[in-house]
Automatic annotation (TrEMBL):
InterPro entries, per the entry: ADH_N_2, MDR_fam
Ranges where the Oxidoreductase N-terminal domain occurs: 48-119
Gene Ontology terms for molecular function: 2-alkenal reductase [NAD(P)H] activity
Keywords, sorted A to Z: Oxidoreductase
Highest taxon, organism lineage: Eukaryota
Protein's name in the database: Oxidoreductase N-terminal domain-containing protein
């Protein structure tokens, strides 16, 4: 740390470690740790630069979230700049009318120790009102992935007690929460018996025939929350029943493919009168308080847990991010940048 200037206008200057995107990642192929580098040579003045105007904030990043959506940004983000993603941060200097110095927030930030966030990113930050839960939960169960699970399950699929729910990528950030919500609703949940107490499951990496795997696990599946796409979606379509619903959440199986896999069984949507609906969670952020009212009591009563996979330090960020695409994580993959 260094102090610049006289006593009246003294500005603190600190090191600002950053994860920089070294190379664009081509649309086809898995991202590699070596596409990113961690630099420790940069510094930052703990003040808002003049050009930021009155709407910016300077934050200290505490937790960063590893999300599949960062993959497409690695193809487009300008090189030699810190990568961006969801995180939890403390506001150190505030020029934004919605916040104050000392507020804890979650939203889009930079993969670095300190970030200056300007419009429109600063407008999307959400003030954290409940601090009696671990702050890292705002990268997962109480942040964007939790809202995604809530919208797919309650707003789009809304299955009833006793119905069967199939979830793909069920051990990840979104999937684990959809499954636990389904269990609380009294549904039968296909996947991950041991870890999350679901009813049945299989590992798609060890199954030569996904259709057969679906048929031998819990009967037929009523309301898939579809996170994967590709072959898994094709197998699920074969196993739908009349009037079923699919919340199309994402297609992680194609994020590293230049040429997308085809889906061949869409005709079953017609025969089985299935409603399949895609959604993007930011369109539903106006429901965030309703979501908190539902999920906070469940967390406090221990009825829903957020299984986290915590990587310590920004240095571990690149490995944690690329391993999301090989499925090394169990639960929400978080990078711890600083202690609260
Ligand atoms: N619509 C929205 O607004 C929205 C918001 C958030 C997330 N999403 C989508 O939801 C999905 C899950 O996101 P998340 O945050 O919960 O990530 P995550 O599950 O925490 O991590 C990704 C998981 O996907 C599985 N996976 C990776 N590559 C795969 C492949 N080729 N085929 C099948 N499974 C694969 C891995 O688990 P295993 O290999 O161990 O099964 C990995 O753990 C993604 O498609 C994401 O884009 C959508």
């Amino acid at each position: 740390m260094a102090i610049v200037g006289g006593s009246e206008e003294a500005t603190v200057v600190v090191r600002n470690k950053q994860v920089i995107l070294r190379e664009y990642v081509p649309a086809s192929g898995f991202p590699k740790e070596s596409d990113m580098c961690v630099t420790t040579i940069g510094t930052i003045k703990l003040m808002l630069p003049d050009q930021v105007g009155s709407d910016g904030v300077l934050v200290k990043n505490l937790y960063l979230s590893c999300d599949p959506s960062q993959r497409s940004r690695m193809t487009k983000t300008p090189q030699q700049r810190p990568i961006r993603g969801y995180g939890v941060a403390e506001i150190l200097v505030c020029g934004h009318p919605n916040f104050e110095k000392g507020d804890l927030v979650w939203g889009i930030t930079g993969w670095e120790e300190y970030s200056v966030l300007t419009k429109p990113a600063a407008d999307t930050l959400t003030k954290i009102q409940h601090t009696d839960v671990p702050l890292s939960y705002y990268t997962g169960i109480l942040g964007m992935p939790g809202m995604t699970a809530y919208i797919g399950f309650y707003e789009i699929c809304s299955p009833k007690k006793g119905q069967y729910v199939f979830i793909s990528a069920a051990s990840g950030a979104v999937g684990q929460l959809v499954g636990q919500s389904a269990k609380l609703q009294g549904c039968y949940v296909d996947l991950l018996k041991n870890k999350f107490g679901f009813d049945d499951g299989f590992n798609y990496k060890e199954e030569p025939d996904l259709n057969a795997a679906l048929k031998r696990s819990v009967a037929v599946h009523f309301f898939p929350n579809c996170n994967v796409g590709g072959k898994m979606l094709d197998a699920v379509l074969l196993n739908m029943r009349i009037g079923d619903r699919i919340a199309m959440c994402g297609m992680i199986s194609r994020y590293n493919l230049g040429q997308a896999e085809g889906v061949h069984n869409l005709i079953y949507l017609v025969a089985k009168r299935v409603r399949m609906e895609g959604f993007l969670v930011p369109d539903y952020y106006h429901l965030y308080l309703k979501f908190l009212e539902l999920v906070l009591p469940y967390i406090n009563e221990g009825k829903i847990v957020d299984v986290e996979d915590k990587a310590q330090g920004l240095e571990s960020g690149p490995a944690a991010l690329v391993e999301l695409f090989t499925g090394r994580n169990v639960g929400k993959q978080v990078v711890v940048v600083a202690l609260e």
